[in-house]
Amino acid sequence: MNKAKKENLINITEFQSDLVQWFQEEQRDLPWRKDKNPYKVWVSEVMLQQTRVDTVIPYYNRFLEKFPTIEAFADADEEAILKIWEGLGYYSRVRNLHSAVKEVVSEYNGIVPDTKEEISKLKGVGPYTAGAVLSIAYGKPIPAVDGNVMRVLSRILLITDDIAKSSSRKVFESAVERLMYHDNPSYFNQALMELGALICTPTSPSCLLCPVREHCQAFENGVQEELPVKTRKKKTRHEDILAVVLKNEEGKILINKRPEEGLLANLWEFPNLKIVPLLDPWETLQDFLSTEYLLDASIEQHSFTEVRHVFTHLTWTIDAYEGRLKSGEVDEYGSLRFVTEEELEELAFPVSHQKIWRAYKEQKR
DNA sequence: GAGACGTGGGT
DNA sequence: TACCCAAGTCT
């Protein structure tokens, strides 16, 4: 059955009003729903990418307290923007947002562009975020297709395209365009997502509470649990890592700034390396410090903690050692820096290295 | 187009 | 334990 035929099976006008009326009555009271300021909407949408609402709320509130206006954020330095994002993950989001905001301030007089064409040129603004900002902040009838929308529409319209494939997004965007409630695109897009979050959940959807169940082809056929079709990704690889918390005679701690591209870009970390198979860890670490960093350190024989950390595509097991070193003339050398404990806690570290730091302090007391 | 890119929570 | 998920984007 083709798409046009399938959509003839639902009454679009009734679907729109049932959905939007439900949203008006049942929507959650979320901080970013108090204000349609395009900058604030934009910040919330970037934070919500691949991230749960409950996780985002405190970050969103802190972010706008620190950077209340688009100009305030444009003026921030990178250390500050990473620190406020610390623990949220996908750190390129905040670096792209910062770059994009600076462009809006310099090229658009601080006004977030209101066309798909222009807003999509900004870093970190893909098809979803463009549609979300344009519809929520500017009331434009542009689709905002995220995972919720694909799940909801796959069920309502019995769409069986594999949502794990990037090519499927356009199928759902076309569907949203045909279903769009032009009287209130903001509510329509948000209602689709809210329905996915509250009712039309990935497992055990609450069909009996669903405001649009009479329009749902999956419910009609009892196949809501079989949709959406989504192929699974292959499993993650693993890395064993040696890390060291090194203190000099002044009590300052050696940290390293990660490269500006790739995993955890520009975040700080304790010096570390991948374990070399078959070699003694302690000797490997000692050798690494002397040959790579030209540091003469004495390392404890046994690690003080083992940290396991799981990423989406990778897992780390980090054995962390403690050590001391003599020379402390310079505070900076390349990507290395000696900092006090207070300074360290003002810098942005990935969660894996925060775990090392917490274990270190715990072991000290 | 497949893989990189984080983290915390749920089953 | 071992997945899978959560308001995606970039390369």
Description:
There is one protein chain. The protein has 365 residues and is of the alpha+beta class. The protein has two domains: 3-226, Hypothetical protein, domain 2 (Endonuclease III, domain 1, Orthogonal Bundle), CATH 1.10.340.30; 237-364, Nucleoside Triphosphate Pyrophosphohydrolase (Alpha-Beta Complex), CATH 3.90.79.10. The protein is built from 16 helices and nine strands. The strands form two sheets. Strands 1, 4, 5, 6 and 7 form a five-stranded mixed sheet that branches. Strands 3-2-9-8 form a four-stranded antiparallel sheet. Helix 3 packs antiparallel against helix 9 (127-138), helix 10 (147-156) packs across helix 11 (169-179) and helix 10 crosses helix 12. It is elongated, with a radius of gyration of 25 Å. The N and C termini lie far apart (69 Å). The model has no long low-confidence stretch (mean pLDDT 93). The chain binds a DNA duplex (11 and 11 nucleotides) through residues 44-56, 87-93, 96, 123-129, 132, 144, 146-149, 165-167, 190, 193-194, 196-197, 202-203, 232-235, 262-265, 309-314, 350-352. It is an enzyme of class 3 (hydrolase). Residues 236-364 form the Nudix hydrolase domain. It catalyses: Hydrolyzes free adenine bases from 7,8-dihydro-8-oxoguanine:adenine mismatched double-stranded DNA, leaving an apurinic site. Keywords: 4Fe-4S, DNA damage, DNA repair, DNA-binding, Glycosidase, Hydrolase, Iron, Iron-sulfur, Metal-binding. Its cofactor is [4Fe-4S] cluster.
